[in-house]
Amino acid sequence: MTTTTRTDGRYRFSHVARMEWIKLRSLRSTWWVLAVTVAGAIGIAVAVGVNTKDAAADLTNNALAGISLGLLLIGVLGVLVMTGEYSSGMIRATLAAIPNRPLVLAAKAAVFGAVALAVGEAAGFIAFFAGGVALPGGIPAPALGQPGVLRAVVMGGAGFCMVGLIGLGLGAIIRHTPAAIAVLVGGVYVLAQFVALLTHSLMAYLPISIVANSLTAVKPMTDGQVVFLSPWTGLVMLCLYAAATLGVGAWLLARRDA
Amino acid sequence: MIEVRGLSKHYGPTVAVDGLSFDVRPGIVTGFLGPNGSGKSTTMRLILGLDAPDAGQARIGGRRYRELRWPLREVGALLEARAFHPGRSARAHLSALAASNGIPRSRVEEVLGLVGLADVAGRRAGRFSLGMGQRLGVAAALLGDPEVLLLDEPVNGLDPEGIRWSRNLLRSLAAQGRTVFVSSHLIGELARTADQVVVIGRGRLLADTSVAELSSRSASLEEAFFELTTGSAEYRGALDSKGRTS
Questions:
Q1: In a domain, A47, yes or no
Q2: Quick count: other Cβ atoms within 10 Å of Cβ A135?
Q3: Is A5 a domain residue?
Q4: Is A1 contained in some domain?
Q5: How many domains does one find in chain A?
Q6: CB pairs under 8 A between A and B
Q7: Which residues on A lie below 8 Å from B101 (Cβ)?
Q8: Domain assignment of residue A18, given as a range
Q9: Is A6 a member of any domain?
Q10: Strand, coil or helix: what is B209?
Q11: Distances in Å between the alpha carbon of A210 and those of A44, A186, B17, B40, B122?
């Protein structure tokens, strides 16, 4: 009998977070997706920069265009953090180790959210500078000291993180990889096209629109009848989406059979 | 010590476990027998709190599973061959589980050696054979050096040498005073491993007795098992609503 004296204390959030960090970093797919995301953001920033003709355009927003496209990848990675556990059977090992299920999802959100934020910020700053360097001669590159520029770059990374968390929440709710990815792509991209055609006022509330037109914009953007949300309102909306999907996900996780 | 009291669970119209009560005592190997679809796996999942029972409860050392403070240090479970991510190495898989319950990293290497996976611990576990996957599951169960072990079909996919290894392991764990609860559809193998046996059919308790007593009822343990479970024979091979086979 060796275990009787070892059961002091109990598992805490920090233990679960450590488990989730080991899980996240030990999958090659994590690093591939993050690397492709950063490389894509930089590549698009350079391509947009090289082709810039109008010095009066929102050059910061242009340089951050790749962040909006990378949303899909980070969202899918968020989905996989959860659905990968169901498709492999790992979820049963996880929940046997930590029966407190909301704690498991909270730790996943904290660890994955921190990684997504770090990568999003890195991608944002590198893309911003790369886009500036790529501008043709005669068009001055935007500087972080100009009004709203630093805010746009930082918020781009934050929006990236939030869409990742929305993916994680959807994964917890839907549990099946293809279905959860379909809902994510539908909600973030496809729906945007339909909503844009039908009701212009709703367009401003879609996640991709918030990141592309509110968070990363230095100059307030309009598109015909659509008035996009202010950066801070947009960020609050994204946080609400992430909180809602994660909240529903945690509620279902605690109630459903694993 | 595992105490199961009035445990019931249905999935849709299928009754998987029906008012099941029994004890699993420490210091011996207790076998868990029943035809396919009789509710063995469901019972194990209910004990581990993975599924919620409709009625009744299971307690481990007097507490429900979700009340355990360090679950992996108190209960080790092997539920299915594949409860790990195919893209992760055996070492990373075990390290993650160890971190969750404050188990030292050195223990990961220890159990890898114990189950004979030390040489392949850095490889993606998705490439493992069925037997190697089973060994990884056993390693995860032993990780926290728990007093209570629940093993669902641990010899599934093991070669004869692996089966003998598994038998010796289970017997030595019980000899150390641990509670060992092991299901198997290989009755002959279980007869050589278990001291006590819990037999269920259609989710109900059919017998809770010693292997010696049950064997003495007929020509062999196998004969006694078939006589007990004749009534639930139509369940053999049937799938429940979630597609599980047992």
A1: yes
A2: 21
A3: no
A4: no
A5: 1
A6: 114
A7: 11, 15, 97
A8: 13-255
A9: no
A10: strand
A11: 19, 16, 50, 51, 42
